[in-house]
TrEMBL record:
Name assigned to this protein: Glucose-6-phosphate isomerase
InterPro entries linked to this entry: G6P_Isomerase (IPR001672), G6P_Isomerase_C (IPR023096), Phosphoglucose_isomerase_CS (IPR018189), SIS_dom_sf (IPR046348), SIS_PGI_1 (IPR035476), SIS_PGI_2 (IPR035482)
Subcellular location: Cytoplasm
Family matches, as Pfam families: PGI
Organism: Ktedonospora formicarum
Reaction catalyzed: alpha-D-glucose 6-phosphate = beta-D-fructose 6-phosphate
Active-site annotation: 360 (proton donor), 391, 511
Keyword check for Transport: no
Function: Catalyzes the reversible isomerization of glucose-6-phosphate to fructose-6-phosphate.
Protein family per UniProt: Belongs to the GPI family.
C-alpha cells in the first residue's frame, strides 16, 4: 500500500524539510555569478543526460547540498514506493478509488500491468490495433463518406484533456502529418469555434471524432449535436452519421444514446486521467494525421522516459530533478509561477497543454487525508514559444520584482532547414538563459559608457533561475519523452505535497452552477432569481440584450 496522508508525517515536520528551511535561510542570497565563479565545471557537473534529453540545471540557485537535501526529501516522502505503487496499478487516486496507469498506455505488448488482478496491457494493444486499422483506412481513402467521397477533414470535438493533448501533439508533429488532411479541433462551447472550424468544409468529406472520457461533458455534447445537425442538413439521411462520426470514450452507453454505433467507438479506461490521455484513443485524430507508425514511435518515446523515471537513481533522474528543483522555488523562495519556453515553433501549444496537466493535477488545497495544507502546492504554468515571448513578457522576468523560474526547451536540429534561422533561434534561447542568470551590473554598464541617468534602469540583477532541456530533433519519440518528463515531474511534486494529483473536484462547482443558470437565461417567463445581487443582475441584463 502506498504511503498516504493518513500515515505520513506532515511535510513541514519532516527532517529533510526542516533542513531545507535552514539551508534556505543560509543560501537564499547566493548569486549564480558566485556559484559559477567558484566552480569552473558547474556547467558540466550540474547536468545530466538520459534517453536522449540533455538537462542543464546549473543555472539554478542550488548547491550540491541543496540537491542532496531535496533528494533526501524525496526519500522521506516515499517517492520510490509511490512510483512503484503507480506502476504497480495501485489505486493511488484515492478520492476516486482508481489506479493511475497512463504508463500502461505505452507499455510494450509483453509487459504485464495488473489492475484488480487483470493484465491491462493486452486491451491497450487491442485498442491501438483498432485505431491503427481505422487510421489506415481513412488515410488511404478506403473509408469513405456517405456519398462516396474521400474524407479530407478530420475534426476532433472534445475539451480539456480530450482536446489539449491531441491538439498540442498534432501541432508538435505536424511535420510528420499527411498534408492532404485538414485536421481541426473544436472545444469551446462558444458556437463561433464550431462555425469557424467548419465554414469552408464540405460535410461529405468531413469526419468528426467525438472525444470525451465521460461522454457527458456539456461543451463536447453541444458541439457534437451541432456537428450532427450540420452533417444531416447536407446529407439528409440518418444513416450518414455512421460514416461521419466516431467516438472515443470510456462510456459505451452514452455513446450509443448519442447515436454513434459502438462498432465505431474506441475505448479507454477509468485508470487514464483526462489530462494524461492523449496517448490513448483520445489521440485518434493525431494518429490519423501522422499515421500509426509515427504514433507508435511517440509511445516508444513515452515508454523510454517511463522506464528511466521508474529505474534511475534520483540524482540522475530527470523528472525527479525537475520536480525537486521546482519544489525549491515554489516552497522555499515563494515563486508562484513557472514559465515554459519552448524554442521550437511546432511546440506552440505546449504551455497551454502543460497548464492543464500541472494545474489541474496539483492545484489542490488539502492533503490526501483531507486536511488543509500549510504550504504552497502547484505553481501557475504559462509561456509562449521563443522568440515571440522575448518581445512580450520577458522584460518582467529580467527586471520585474517577481521570481519566475523558466524552463527552456530546444533542439539541436531544425526540421525545416532554412539557414540562418535555427542558429538565431537557439542563440536567443541560450542568450536568454545567460542573461537571466548573470544579468548586467552597474559597473559593466559604466564601463560601456552608458549615461549615468540610465544606469539604474538598465541594470539587470541576474540570478534568475532556469532549466535548459536540449534534444536532437523534434521527432515523435522526442515529443513522447518530453511529455512523459512533465507528467512525472507533476507526479514527483504531488507526492512531495501529499496531494491527490489525479482528481479535479474544483472544476465541478462551476459546472453545476452553469447548469442552473442555463434555464434562467432561456426561459420565456421571467425566472425567479435566487442568486446574489450581482449574479441576478448579470442574468437580467443578458436576458434583456440577448439575440433571440
Ligand atoms: O473540466 C474537467 C475535465 O473533467 C477534465 O479533467 C477533462 O479533461 C475534461 O473535463 C473533459 O472531460 P471528458 O473527456 O469527460 O469530456
Amino acid at each position: 500500500m502506498a504511503t498516504t496522508g493518513t500515515s505520513r508525517t506532515p511535510l513541514t515536520q519532516l527532517e529533510s524539510w526542516k533542513a531545507l528551511e535552514e539551508h534556505y535561510q543560509k543560501t537564499k542570497d547566493i548569486e549564480l555569478r558566485t556559484l559559477f565563479a567558484e566552480d569552473a565545471t558547474r556547467g558540466e557537473r550540474f547536468t545530466t543526460e538520459a534517453v536522449g534529453l540533455y538537462y542543464d540545471y546549473s543555472k539554478n540557485r542550488v548547491t550540491s547540498e541543496t540537491l542532496a537535501l531535496l533528494q533526501k526529501l524525496a526519500q522521506e516522502v516515499g517517492l520510490r514506493e509511490r512510483i512503484d505503487a503507480m506502476f504497480g496499478g495501485e489505486k493511488i487516486n484515492i478520492t476516486e478509488q482508481r489506479a493511475v496507469l497512463h504508463v500502461a498506455l505505452r507499455a510494450p505488448k509483453d509487459q504485464t500491468i495488473l489492475v484488480d488482478g487483470q493484465n491491462v496491457v493486452p486491451e491497450v494493444h487491442e485498442v491501438l490495433d483498432k485505431m491503427s486499422a481505422f487510421s489506415d483506412r481513412v488515410r488511404s481513402g478506403e473509408w469513405k463518406g456517405y456519398t462516396g467521397k474521400r474524407i479530407r477533414n478530420i475534426i476532433n470535438i472534445g475539451i480539456g484533456g480530450s482536446d489539449l493533448g491531441p491538439d498540442m501533439a498534432y501541432q508538435a508533429l505536424r511535420y510528420y502529418s499527411d498534408r492532404d488532411l485538414n485536421v481541426r479541433f473544436v472545444s469551446n462551447v462558444d458556437g463561433t469555434h464550431f462555425a469557424e472550424a467548419t465554414r469552408d468544409l464540405n460535410p461529405e468529406e468531413t469526419l468528426f471524432i467525438v472525444s470525451s472520457k465521460t461522454f457527458t461533458t456539456i461543451e463536447t455534447m453541444t458541439n457534437a449535436r451541432t456537428a450532427r445537425a450540420w452533417t444531416l442538413k447536407a446529407l439528409k439521411d440518418e444513416t450518414a452519421i455512421a460514416r461521419h462520426f466516431v467516438a472515443v470514450s470510456t462510456n459505451a452507453e452514452e455513446v450509443q444514446k448519442f447515436g454513434i454505433d459502438t462498432a465505431n467507438m474506441f475505448g479507454f479506461w477509468d485508470w487514464v486521467g483526462g489530462r494524461y490521455s492523449y496517448d490513448s484513443a483520445i489521440g485518434l485524430s493525431l494518429m490519423i494525421a501522422i499515421g500509426p507508425e509515427n504514433f507508435r514511435r511517440m509511445l516508444a518515446g513515452f515508454h523510454e522516459m517511463d522506464e528511466h523515471f521508474r529505474t534511475a537513481p534520483f540524482e540522475r533522474n530527470l523528472p525527479v530533478l525537475l520536480g525537486l528543483i521546482g519544489i525549491w522555488y515554489n516552497n522555499f523562495f515563494g515563486a508562484q509561477t513557472v514559465a515554459v519556453l519552448p524554442y521550437e515553433q511546432y511546440l506552440k501549444k505546449l504551455s497551454a497543454y502543460l497548464q492543464q496537466l500541472d494545474m489541474e493535477s496539483n492545484g489542490k488545497h488539502v492533503n490526501e487525508a483531507g486536511q488543509d495544507v500549510n504550504y504552497q502546492t502547484g505553481p501557475i504554468i504559462w509561456g509562449q514559444p521563443g522568440t515571440n515571448g522575448q518581445h512580450a513578457f520577458y522584460q518582467l522576468i529580467h527586471q520585474g520584482t517577481k521570481l519566475i523560474p523558466c524552463d527552456f526547451i530546444g533542439f539541436y536540429q531544425s526540421l525545416n532547414i532554412l539557414p540562418p534561422h535555427h542558429d538565431l533561434l537557439i542563440a536567443n534561447m541560450i542568450a536568454q538563459a545567460e542573461a537571466l542568470a548573470f544579468g548586467k551590473t552597474a559597473e559593466e554598464l559604466k564601463a560601456e559608457g552608458s549615461p549615468e541617468y540610465q544606469i539604474p534602469h538598465r541594470v539587470c540583477k541576474g540570478n534568475r533561475p532556469s532549466n535548459t532541456i536540449f534534444a536532437e530533433r523534434l521527432t515523435p519519440e522526442a515529443l513522447g519523452k518530453i511529455i512523459a518528463l512533465y507528467e512525472h515531474k507533476v507526479f514527483v511534486q504531488g507526492t512531495v505535497w501529499n496531494i491527490d494529483s489525479f482528481d479535479q473536484w474544483g472544476v465541478e462547482l462551476g459546472k453545476v452552477l452553469a447548469k442552473r443558470i442555463i434555464p434562467e437565461l432561456q426561459s420565456e417567463q421571467e425566472p425567479e432569481l435566487k442568486h446574489d445581487s450581482s449574479t441576478n443582475q448579470l442574468i437580467q441584463r443578458y436576458r434583456q440584450h440577448k439575440n433571440h
